[in-house]
Amino acid sequence: LATAGWVGRREDALFLGPPGSGKSHCAQAIGHAVIQQGYRVLYREAHALLEELADATLDGKRKEHMELLTTVPLLVIDDLGMRKLPLTAAEELLEIIMRRYERASTLLTSNRPVDDWGKLLGDSAAVTAMLDRLLHHGHVLKCGPRSWRTKTGRVGDAQ
After folding, report:
1. Where are the domains of the chain?
2. Cα 126 to chain center, whole Å?
3. How far is CA 36 from CA 6, 33, 43, in A?
4. How far is CA 97 from CA 3, 38, 69, 84, 129, in A?
5. Residues 24, 37: Cα–Cα separation, whole Å
6. Paired residues of 80 in beta bridges
7. Does the 5-158 domain belong in CATH 3.90.1640.10?
8. Where would I find the AAA+ ATPase domain in this sequence (predicted)?
9. What tens digit of pLDDT does each residue of 57-115 get?
């Protein structure tokens, strides 16, 4: 993934695993590597991305903001499921993923199993459609099973 070939092919990636397993670290490192290959990258935590989109909508700038989100060659959406999301999250994320599908790459990280996303986002149909697109040309990296933080910290020393 660090070679950026997948971005040129407009493929996607999902990094899944428990908190502290290195998903965000890997996503950021890959984002930096993709930038070094000459691509533009936009990194946002899921809750911040949705807050920014809501603010742009209120400011009458939704179209411009959505254009940025849907055309940047690599959009990294980090920590889906880490924080509570707005009720419109499933619809908003689906719109972004649908517009990016086979046009630009998306890297999404989550500490929640994909089977829980329908409940998490409150719309199983939207989640199914979103995952269908992400996984069609997608790479899945399962991180874990344990947190690097507890593995290297005092708790890890006690085990």
Report:
1. 5-158
2. 16
3. 14, 5, 15
4. 23, 23, 10, 20, 9
5. 20
6. 110
7. no
8. 9-141
9. 999 999 999 999 999 999 999 999 888 899 999 999 999 999 999 999 999 999 999 99
Residue 71's region, left for phi above 0, alpha for psi from -120 to 50, else beta, is alpha
**Coil, strand or helix at 109:** strand
Is the pTM above the cut of 0.85?
yes
Give the whole-angstrom CA distance, residue 84 versus residue 120: 9
Predicted confidence (pLDDT) per residue in 28-59, tens digit? 999 999 999 999 999 999 999 999 999 999 99
Confidence at residue 159, expressed as pLDDT on a 0 to 100 scale: 45
Place of tokens 């055309």: 71
Pick the closest to residue 108 from 56, 39, 49, 54 (CA basis): 49
